Amino acid sequence: MGPRSQEGTQICEHLKRSPPGSQRTQADNMGSPKPWWGLVFGSALGCNLILGNEQPGAYVLETTAVGGAMTGGSSASGGAPESGGSLGTGGTPERTSVGAIGEPCAPNGVFACAGQDQRVQLTCVEGKWNSLGQCASTERCDTRVGSNTGVCESIVPECQDKEPGAAIETCAGNAPQVCGADRVSLESAAACAATLGCALGACQPRLPECAGQAENTWVCAASGPARVQCGANETETNRQGCAHSCNGGWCDVPSCADLAPTCGPTAAGDCCESLVVPGGAFLRGTDDAAPATITGFRLDKYEVTVGRFRAFKAAWEGGYRPMQGAGKHVHLNLGRGLSDGAGGYELGWETAWEAQVDVTDAAREGSYTNWTASAGDNENLPMNFVNWFEGAAFCIWDGGFLPSETEWEYVAAGGDEERSYPWGEATPDCTYANFVLEGSSCSGNPTHSNAVGSLLPGDGRWKHSDLSGNVREWCLDWDAPFMSPCSDCVQQTASASRSCRGGANAQDISLLPAAARAAVSPATRAATTGLRCARTP
């Protein structure tokens, strides 16, 4: 509750020096009227009221002898002054909270405002409205009839830049909310019709697929390969097209459609398994000044394998191309994706990038490549010799997207546990990760890569494999200093390099920590570089 006004202190100080009734002047004895503040505030209660120490509404209730305050210009009998009504006679006056300076009012001592969405506070003195004070620029005088009448209240954040009655992006039950008359409160508009549901402050069609579903539940669309996120009151908030099909609210992952479950330490795991990562906050890098918060999402348990990339190669050669703007974190910011920290959002795929995607065998050639022209013994090895554009296109085709650098580090660090390595604090050796130890690669394979998920002790907090070592992994961000603060953020100001995390089989221990950063030109294809996809929760 805001204060009555700044002038109240001066008035009360005057009252303390000259209490009403003391040192009366000749004029006083002759019947001259006392100042309005002497009449209304000539008591301890009055000083408390003017200083904002008492609720004015309570004072109104205690002192209203004829049924409450009345509007400026209205008489106690309900008629306007010009219609012949007189103050103090007739029926009960209308309870009101709006008046005009100099206009009639009753009873003395009640409070009001000089209008709706106004800053001027009023009080009734000798039957007329007088100015009591003015609210701060971020406040408005509350015209709601009740205990807060005439009080300075802060404008609610949702209405700072809106007009009274303007719609906002919230609902109360099945009714949109709007800014109140003074913008110090939110009010409900008319409820939506039975066939409509309120979502984001507007009446929208109810989606039959969402009938009986909880808010934020994903269901399969009734037509076409797509999944739909149900919003408030059985409406639709997000829709994500599926490259292959939808099953149980999830897009089937096309890269594993024809692959047997052959990944992990027992070579029997689903190579496309994607694990839920709960949201939270943590400190990035080794700098306490780089806090970040993320919303929950899914991250694939394994690095993308040669076998999975082979399916993408066939799709690209068959004419598949990502749509402009595809690959966003559509579960964030009303489908707009990650925030760039400057009022913008994730840009998604650009069709001009198609020229950077080469799925030919020739593009995979090089020392220690895991690729083979036809399926063979390397199908469970991590895909390498893939550039950033190819990694982004693969994840979009596979129903996901590249993780942001912050998301990747959050998983590698175990979120708020802020681990030094994905597995904890133990010093890395070849049981935890595939890297260069004492001058040699931990892997016995000719390409120096292990089959994905081979090293169970190296799994992270949420059971993700190979977050350190094997191949480093592309992230969505351009390389840049940490954005701070970061809430579901992405660095999308172009630079020379993209973020690449995790260390690799040909690199030493220095790049294995969860906080270790690396920057690589997005056009680079290297034996040390692969990818892992993220997905909506």
Protein described:
The chain has 537 residues and is α+β, with helices and mostly antiparallel strands. It has three domains: 147 residues, no CATH class; 38 residues, no CATH class; 262 residues, paralog of FGE (formylglycine-generating enzyme) (Alpha-Beta Complex). It has eight helices and 27 strands. β6 and β7 form a beta hairpin. It starts with 6 loop residues before the first helix and ends with a strand.
Quick summary of this structure?
This protein is of the alpha+beta class and 537 residues long.
Describe the SSE topology:
Layout: H1 7-17, H2 26-29, H3 36-41, H4 44-50, H5 56-63, E1 111-113, E2 120-125, E3 128-134, E4 139-141, E5 152-154, E6 167-172, E7 175-179, E8 186-188, E9 196-199, E10 202-205, E11 218-220, E12 226-230, E13 236-241, E14 246-247, E15 250-251, E16 274-277, E17 280-283, E18 291-294, E19 297-300, H6 306-317, H7 388-397, H8 405-412, E20 436-437, E21 440-441, E22 472-478, E23 486-487, E24 498-501, E25 519-520, E26 529-530, E27 534-535
Parallel strand pairs: 18-23, 22-26
Antiparallel strand pairs: 1-2, 2-3, 4-5, 6-7, 7-8, 9-10, 11-12, 12-13, 14-15, 16-19, 17-18, 19-27, 20-21, 22-24, 24-25
